[in-house]
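Exam prep: given the inputs below (a chain plus zinc ion), describe the expected output before reading on.
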Amino acid sequence: MTTPTTPASGSTEMAPAYTPADVEQRVYEWWESRGLFKPSRPERSGPNAAQPFTIIMPPPNLTGELHLGHALVVSLQDALTRWHRMLGDDTLWLPGVDHAAIAVNAIIERQLAAEKLSRHDVGRDAFLDRTWTFVNSSRARIMEQHRRLGASADWEREAFTMDAAREVAVRQTFKNLYDDGLIYRAERLINWCVDCESAISDIEVEYEDEPGAFWHVRYAIADAEDHPTDANIIIATTRPETIPADTAIAVNPEDPRYAHLIGQHAIVPTNGRVIPIIGDAAVVIDAGTGALKVTPGHDPVDFEIGQRHGLEIISIMNNDGTLNADAGQYEGIERFEARKRVVADLETAGRMEKIDPYTHPVGHCQRSRTIVEPLISLQWWVDAKTLAGPAIEAVKSGQIKFVPPRFERVYEHWMENIRDWCISRQIWWGHRIPVWYCDECDHITVALVTPTACEGCGGAMIRQDEDTLDTWFSSGLWPHSTLGWPEDTDDLKRFYPTQVMETAYDIIFFWVARMIMLSLYNMKDWPGGAIPFDTVYLHGLVRASDGAKMSKSRGNVIDPLEQIGKYGTDGLRFALLSGTSPGNDQRITDDRLEAGRNLSNKLWNASRFVLTLIEDGDDLALPAPSALAAIEDRWILSRLAHVTHEIDALLRRFELAEGLRQARDFFWDEFADWYIELAKVRIRAGDRTPMPVLLHVVDQVLRLLHPFMPFVTEEIWQRVIALRPDADGASALIVARYPKPDALAAYVDDDAERQLVAVQDFVRGIRNIRAEKRVDAGRWVEAYIVAADAQAAATSMLPALEQLARARPLHIVATAADAPSEGVVTTVLSVGQVALPMAGLFDLDAERARLAKQVTEAEGEVERQAAKLGNEQFRSRAPADVVAKEEERLATARGRLDGLRASLAEIG
Ligand SMILES: [Zn+2]
Ligand SMILES: [Zn+2]
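Solution:
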């Protein structure tokens, strides 16, 4: 063998076994050092024309360790990227990371808490210094882990949501939206997390059932002088601690119980405040008592009622969840403690009508799991309703497609009901809001570059908003900000719009929807089209083998790096990719991981076998279809053509698991199990014509499998091209051409496939008889094949048939009449028959003796069993199920005896 031009160990040999740890890192570095992850074919027309194919990597969070979800993301996107690169597209997989604002902020706060410090103790600058140190080390580790998974991303283009270029994009977007009136500042009821001490958006709130109660409270009706009368109106509430903030009682004007009270007043029992009783159609007559306490400062429905009736908004809660001075005697008390006190006071005052236990859904912060508090707060908002219009249209018109398509309806429904998006966060880690307030004139300056003076009055007394932006604001710009927007960069021109956005279905609203909205807004005049991508591919979650969600608390988290150590990266990728289907969750099992490792080994061993057979002077050029003589050569190349066609169609439909399965089955079940075995017989007889076919199929299988299992395929392929250089001159499999259906179409040969199927059936038929009759594996048996239409094929492959069936002499005859009918075991197949003379299967005398002995034993068993059941005492005393079991035993023994007698009679 010649020396491979290799990323390999430098050895010309293939080691007897494949060891991923010896190969993966070396091959990865070799690819990267040669720039093979970079897009390389920018021409859009002319002889070298290439279509762009771009995937922007969903930025992994900086917080955690790599988990199997990441490993699936990387495997899927890398498979798509490698496939398109091999199709000859101008392929870019652009990597990046997300700053995960709230999550990272919380980590740093926990670090500080361990030192008995708060962020306010250290101050904003020191806090951010600490955060950057954490982020930089975490970022390096995450990207290193992506390399271990084989990610062929262009690392020189790596983006970070907090780097300088992305900051420009964030500020530009904010300013444009502000200038267009699509970002505004308003005091509204928001979801407040007392743990994160920040506002959070609606979709960051998760609802869970919590046991609670309906406290029925009597509010006195006031007389004309605002004094309490003996008349009461009863309201039912789940949050009595908000009673001090009540500003009205609302009833439905259609409700005959209360209609006459509208216009009168009631008295808040905790503080004696006099509040109006109002009529509002939003009050549900059947809910609770039909009378609603209205607390606009602490409930979203009440807030809207308050807006309609011009009610006062009272906020009684501090940001840390304690009550403030407006709560009167409850000032300084934590919210749930305050609930207990209010209830106790109402009971003491005789104002509690009754308490009904009641379990109801309560909003929790997605991150800290704390119960979320609706609070009135001055925040920045994006007018999502306006932005949603074009984003709905882009999907409805088919410009953007979802895989699987059922998610289009989920998306549209959510977008049609979207509410304005609260984008300001009261934390320090993140993009600081590019807004400056003036102490002199109240003007708000929104700027791209930090201003030194107020835009309104020119005064220098300006200060920047303290808040930062929701993390998803910057990741919403990802498809264009990563390519350099707002600069008019070459990358933007070359790669925007991108093709595929591949992500998990559980972040459609957080991320996919916002990318579509913000991209359509920022890129609305883009000549190549404003949509950020044309396909949204949504993968499912990876679950533990029992179907449970993996979580640290369950202790069932699988560490991908550990699996790589056990099964190799290719083995892990196989396990993940063979189980994935669009939009569906999958379970990861040891069986699939082992199947992945086994496939790596089988590829290595089968290729090694083929390569070692090749001798100097072998003609390795694949013959034209017409020059192929042997049926098995015509068959395997025809099958390769079909499989290539199938895989191409499957990958175009994102059915990666099925494509992988077909490639694997072709390689293993057809090529390795049959073709190599058939070819061996010819080669042993001195026939060298199988060599180019063997080498060609190995080469094509490596190409077909490369996107899924990049390392083992590249390592082997380097040896293949050392023997037969690539037709297109590629020196690495990663940039070699993927098998094209058209190129192989001429090799489709239905006749050869039919004949080979018949040959396989003959061999299997003989093997089955041997197994059934327990013929020694090494024993040669005489056999007849009634070949019918496949006579020519069987005859041409006689030596191989003899070997594979271990049958000699092997008679190939045309009709059943040409085979003996006495003293043979026969199996009828769809393509013909096989018949094995009994005398050849074993030593008849010894077999007769063995069977006779077994017949005697079986007779004894039947007798004993019959005697037991004939015993009246046993039958009357034993429980019915025991008797039934014994009867079954007798029936089994009789069946066995009959079988043995028949076998004995058969050999005479
Ligand atoms: Zn929280
Ligand atoms: Zn000013």
